[in-house]
Amino acid sequence: MNRKPTPAAAVLIAIAALAGCNQQPAVAPIVGTNVATGFVSGNHTYDTVCGQCHETGVGPMLRGRQLHPQLFTQIVRNGMAAMPAFPASAITDAELNDVAQLIQSSATPQTEEPANGN
Amino acid sequence: MATDTNQTPAVLPANVTADDFRRAMAELATALGGDNVLTEAQDLAPYRKIMISEPDDSHAPSANLLARTVEEVQAVVRICNQYRIPVWTISTGKNLGYGSAAPAQRGQVILDLKLMNRIIEVDPVLCTALVEPGVTYQQLKDYLVENDIPLWLSCPAPSAIAGPVGNTLDRGVGYTPYGEHFMMQCGMEVVLADGDVLRTGMGGVENSNTWQVFKWGYGPYLDGIFTQSNYGIVTKMGFWLMPQPPVYKPFAIRYEDDDDIHDIVETLRPLRIANVIPNAMVFANVMWEAAATIPRSKYYDGTGVTPDSVLEQIKANEGIGAWNVYAALYGTQEQVDVNFAILRQALEASGKGRLITEEEAGNTEPFAYRAKLMRGDMTLQEFGLYRWRGGGGSMWFAPVSVAKGSETITQVNLAKEILNRHGFDYVAEFVVGMRDLHHIIDVLFNRNDPAEMAAAHTCFAELLSEFGKRGYAVYRVNTAFMDEAADLYGPVKRRVDQALKRALDPNGILAPGKSGITI
Description:
The complex is a heterodimer of chains A (118) and B (519).
Chain A: H1 7-18, H2 42-54, H3 69-78, H4 93-104
Chain B: H1 18-32, E1 37-38, H2 41-48, E2 64-66, H3 70-83, E3 87-90, E4 109-112, E5 119-123, E6 128-131, H4 137-146, E7 151-152, H5 164-169, E8 185-191, E9 197-199, E10 233-240, E11 242-243, E12 247-255, H6 260-273, E13 282-285, H7 286-291, H8 308-318, E14 323-331, H9 333-350, E15 354-357, H10 358-361, H11 367-373, H12 385-389, E16 392-397, E17 400-402, H13 405-421, E18 428-432, E19 436-446, H14 450-469, H15 482-488, H16 491-504
Parallel strand pairs in B: 2-4, 3-4
Antiparallel strand pairs in B: 1-2, 5-6, 6-10, 7-11, 8-9, 8-10, 12-14, 12-15, 13-14, 13-18, 16-19, 17-19, 18-19
C-alpha cells in the first residue's frame, strides 16, 4: 500500500538524508597496499575513460573500426591533438592491450553516432 | 622498460653532468626498483604531451620516477639532493592546458605519484576523505558507489581522469557547493626536501583523530604554502565531502545579449552571497556552449575569428544564449521550493533571463553535462572545447574579477579585443566564487601550425600584461608563463616566496620554477 508520509515525517526523512547517513554504515577504512593502476577491466576502462569522449561525440567513435591494437596503443601512449597521453602508471601495457582487443573486436554501433569528433 | 644506467642521457637537467645523472639514476634504481626509474624515450613520451604554446622539447623530462610509498619519496629527495637533480612531481598528470604532466623546465626529472593511489579513509559520518595523490575522482566515485556511501564529490571538468590532490594543490575549482576545493581541504602529509614528514593541522598531534575535521591546528596555518608551490611533496591529503541532498534541482538561465553579463552578475550575486544559490555557478558564453557540444566546422570552415554572423546562426539553430547560466539548488523539498521562488522573483524583477528547468531541458547537452558537474559526477564532455578549432592547443587564461557587473563588461571587452586581434575566439565562462568570479578563457589554437602557435604565445603574453596593467591577475597559469604571472603579484611577494624556498629547500631541487619560485 502506498502511503504518503505525514509532513512531519517527511521532514525527518529529508533531514536524515541530508545528514548523509547517521546509521554508521559498515565501511572499514582501506589501509592496505595500493591498487596498482586502479584497473578493473577493459570494459570498465572503456566505459569510464575512453567512452567519456568517444561515446559522447567529443572524440571519434572507436567501436566497429577494427582499430589495430598497435595503433591504438601508440595513440594512447603519445596522445594526439586534443587526446591526452596516458603513461603506464595510469594503465599498464597488459591492461591497455585488454582495452585495445576489446575495441578491435567491437561491433559497429547500431544507433546513430553522436556529433562528429576529430 | 627500466633505465640503462650506462647509456648516454638524451636529455639532462640543467647544471647536472652526465656522469652524476647516471650515478643518481643507479642509486634511484636501487631505492625504487629498476622498473620504476624510466629514461627510455618510449616511456617518457606520455609525459611530453603538452597543449601550451611552446615546443615539446622545451618541457622534455630526462627521466621518470615511480614511487609507491612515503619512504620511497623520502629516498628520492635524499638522492636528488645529493646530485642536485630537479624533481617535478605530478599526481595524475592531467593538468591539461596548464602544462599537463610535463615539467616546467627541460631536463627536470618527473616524480609520478599515480601509483600512490590508496583511498585511506572515507568517514561517512563526518563526511571526510583522506587519499593519496594518485587517486582519481573516478576511483573515489566508484568507491562511494560500491560501498553505498551517500556522499558527493566536487570535480573539475576533466573529472574522470584527474584527481582531488592535484586539483586542490593547484587550487582548482569545481561546480558544487564545495566547488572552492582548497577551502574544503583539511590536513596534509608533506615530505619536505630534507626528508622530514610534516603533517599539517591536527596531523602532528599524537593519537589525534581530528586531522580531517579541523583545518587550522595551532600556530601558523601551513597548508596554503604547499599549494601552487614547490616547498614539499604532498603524499596524503584530507578533504570534506558533501552529503547527498534529498532534492537536487539544476537549472539554466538563458540571456540573449552579450551585455547581459552585467545584469546576470547584479541579479545573481546577492543570491550567491546569501547562499540561496549555494554552488559555484557558471556563466558560459555562446562559444563555450557551442564548443562543448559541436565542432566549429558545423557552421564555419574558415580560419581565424568566428564571425559574429556565424555566432548568431549558432544561437538561433542550437538554442544557445549569448550567456548561459548554470546553477543548482540542494536540500529538502521545502528548502528548494523556497529558494526557487526567491530566484524566480529576482529574475522577474530584473526583467531578463529565461529560466530552463531540468524537466524542460531533458537529457540534452550541454544541460546534461552541466547537471552532472554540479552534482560531482563524471563527465569529459567539456573536452569538446578542444575540438572547436582543432590542433590540440589550449591555454587557460583565468583572471580573477570582483563579482560586479561593470567589471565583467570591462574584462570581456578587453579579452575579446586582444584575442580577436591575434585571430583567436573569445571562448569563456565565469565561475562564481564566494565574492569573486574566476573569468576562465580557453585560448584555443592549432599546435600543428607554427605561425598560429607563435600568435597564441604572443596573445597570451599580451593578455597577462594588459590585464595586469589594469589590476587584474590570474589565479593560476600554465608552465610557460609562471614568471610573468608571479611578477603581477609584486616584488615583495616574490621575495617572501623565495625566502621560504631557501629555508625549506636550500638546494632548490623541488620543482624549480613552479609559480615563478626558485632559490
